[in-house]
Write a structure and sequence with these properties.
Layout lengths: L4 E7 L20 H14 L5 E4 L1 H6 L1 H9 L3 E4 L12 H15 L8 E2 L12 H8 L4 E2 L20 E2 L5 E2 L16 H6 L2 H12 L5 E4 L16 H8 L2 H14 L2 E2 L1 H7 L8
Parallel strand pairs: 1-2, 1-8, 1-9, 2-3, 4-5, 5-7
Antiparallel strand pairs: 6-7
Helix pairs in contact: 1-9, 4-5
The protein binds zinc ion (ZN).
The site of zinc ion has 6 residues, from loops.
């Protein structure tokens, strides 16, 4: 069985997901347009409809980009407002983040389908976040890293799309064992692993369950500024192999089929699916 997979994009600029506080963001050059244009045209060329987890701050600063994504027929989901580690904030702060995002998307006439935590930062420390996501009307969550990636993750967590007790669908990212690591099918791992290894893992997992692939627009922007002061643990994976993103993506889009995430959930025919 070859399943249909989900192509997901965490829509944020190059400086927004590397542990820099939002109060510092105005010091950096806004370049999201560069990577966004390349990614959007690749998706259009391959006739792939993706799921975009959009950062609230990006909606505020680049409404034109959000409109283009909606006009192209991609699914809109939420990636918080200010990209915090969710286990470092309170339930009240998280509620405020979601409320702000919900207000920001209203003028576009669409509702968010799902939510993804920045840095996949829902783990055993803050499972309460899943109840807030449900209460705020989201259909699914895609925040759990079912493995160990050092700063987040839940070892042994159910890797399949499943319905939580609170009736929210959980869509864990796809992780696998590789040497002593537990990488995921997307982001830096997509650039770091040779394409034939990535493709083999993708194919293996896609025979078990839909692959939830993820990428960021800045990974298509080879020339964004190099921040030498970032800790090596963040700097190496951020900048490694950016020149490979686009050629590898051409191959990936030829080799596999993709659909928006919520379409996949609906087609899984959960007995309790009533919406
Ligand atoms: Zn992010």
């Amino acid at each position: 069985m070859n399943t249909i997979n989900a192509f997901t994009v965490d829509l944020e600029d190059w400086y927004q997901g590397i542990g820099i506080n939002m109060s510092e963001w105005n010091k950096y050059e806004k370049r999201i347009r560069i990577g966004h244009d390349r990614l959007l045209s690749l998706l259009s060329k391959h006739k792939v409809k993706a799921t975009y987890f959009v950062l609230g701050k990006v909606i505020e600063e680049h409404p034109d980009i959000i409109k283009e994504i909606i006009d192209e027929g991609h699914e809109i989901s939420c990636h918080s407002y200010s990209h915090p580690f969710l286990y470092d904030i309170t339930p009240e702060q998280f509620t405020h983040e979601l409320d702000k995002c919900i207000e920001l998307i209203k003028p576009f006439g669409v509702n968010y389908k799902g939510f993804r935590a920045p840095y996949f930062s829902i783990d055993h420390r803050n499972l309460w976040a899943l109840d807030i996501i449900k209460q705020k009307g989201f259909e699914y969550d895609s925040s759990i890293y079912p493995g160990d990636n050092k700063r987040t993750g839940i070892k042994g967590y159910n890797k399949n799309i499943h319905l939580l007790d609170n009736q929210l669908y959980e869509v864990p990212v796809c992780t696998f064992k590789f040497l002593i690591f537990e990488p995921a099918l997307g982001g830096a791992y997509f650039r770091i692993l040779p394409y034939n290894i990535f493709k083999k893992k993708f194919r293996e997992i896609s025979q078990l369950r839909p692959v939830i692939f993820y990428i960021h627009p800045w990974e298509f922007d080879l020339d964004h500024p190099y921040l030498s002061k970032l800790p090596p643990r963040i700097r190496y994976p951020h900048y490694y192999g950016l020149k490979y993103t686009e050629p590898k993506m051409q191959k990936l889009l030829n080799d596999f089929e993709f659909k928006p995430l919520f379409n996949i959930i609906k087609e899984l025919n959960f007995e309790s699916y009533e919406r």
